[in-house]
Amino acid sequence: MCSTGEARRGGDKRGEERRDETGEERRGEARRRRVRRGETRRRARDSSENLHHLSRKQKCVLHNHHSESHISPRNSKNQGRDSPLSYLEEMGKAGSRDWTQIYAIYGLDQWQTIVFLLFHAVLFTILSLLYLTYFDPITLFFHRLLPIASARFAAGFTGSVTALSALCLFVASFHFLHSSLPLHYDVVQRMVASVHDWSTVKHALDLGCGRGILLNAVATQLKKEGSSGRVVGLDRSKMTSLNTLHTAKLEGVGEYVTCREGDPRRLPFGDNYFDVVVSAVFVHTVGKEYGHRTVEASAERMRVVGEMVRVLKPGGSGVVWDLLHVPEYVRRLQELKMEDIRVSERVTAFMVSSQIVSFRKPSQHSFGLGEVRLDWRC
Questions:
Q1: How many angstroms from the chain centroid is the CA of residue 149?
Q2: I need a surface site. Which of 117, 249, 253, 368 has the fewest CB within 10 A?
Q3: What string of H, E and C letters represents the secondary structure of 271-334?
Q4: How does DSSP classify residue 345?
Q5: What's the sign of the alpha-carbon dihedral 135, 138, 143, 145?
Q6: Residue 19 CA, distance from chain mean position
Q7: Is 98 helix (H, G, I), strand (E, B) or coil?
Q8: CA gap 206, 215 in Å, rounded
Q9: Each residue's pLDDT tens digit, 40-95
Q10: Which residues lie across from 356 on neighbouring strands?
Q11: Which residues of 176-196 are buried (b: 16+ CB within 10 A; e: fewer)?
């Protein structure tokens, strides 16, 4: 009995020891879990502080970058990359801008024409759908005038013509939209690239600046080159000039741009004043009150070309992108003894042919006995 009691007490003691050991293990595991949670919190807190510190540094960098982008162009030669135009070029694919970005700044040229085309495209689409839906009643209507076979052919033919007209009108409206925004922007970049050295340009002229796509592209190039020059935009409308100044501010080149109201056939500038003269889809609009194909309208356009040559400095460059009448400009430039006349391949813009012509005024331009400067304005 005693031995049995001692054995029972020994078993109870060993059970208590095992329970104590298990409790110690559990408490140790709990302490280790608390330590791990504490370390996790410390790492998270340290990471948060590092991120916060990094964000402060990034803010300082962005602030410094923003401040540097407002440095005067005369004090820096690398500010062209800071303009909104260059930023969007870097963000876009292959350096080109999306048409929505161009529209957001410049709006839409010839929007009345685009609305007119879209309205008639929708109208003809509805008519073609009516022809398709009510083909049999329309055939019966034609059957009053024609035999049944001819009536079916007439109904199908008129329905097909209506559908094709709707398709053509949609194509024309979207082509006008493309020409007004992305194509205009791309051709303007080509025009700017055709002038080899912008760093020496002090005065540039955009004839018929309109919304300012070409004007601001020239100003952006001047800013990129670190030039102290300026570009003057001339337009026949004062309201257009004010809007153009607004777009220049949006592009970050407002300090490089000046706009004037004036007649392109009598430019309000002295002879040999500009280093570069450019114009985009404008010259063909001069003299349109006489009709585009008349002799009077052609004489007015040649007068504008002569004015461009007159205000251009000897050795200066001219670049013109226009519709339909570029061969006339080339002949006139040849008559005026311009050098390095180059004509681009044809590009369809606004549903017609367009080309870029570039030229250089001779460094020494002499006048013969029978040649006077007034001839440039004829």
A1: 54
A2: 368
A3: CCCEEEEEEECCHHHCCHHHCCCCHHHHHHHHHHHHHHHHHEEEEEEEEEEEECCHHHHHHHHH
A4: P
A5: negative
A6: 80
A7: coil
A8: 6
A9: 566 555 544 443 443 343 334 333 433 333 333 333 333 333 333 333 333 333 34
A10: 321
A11: bbebbbbbbbebbbebbeebe
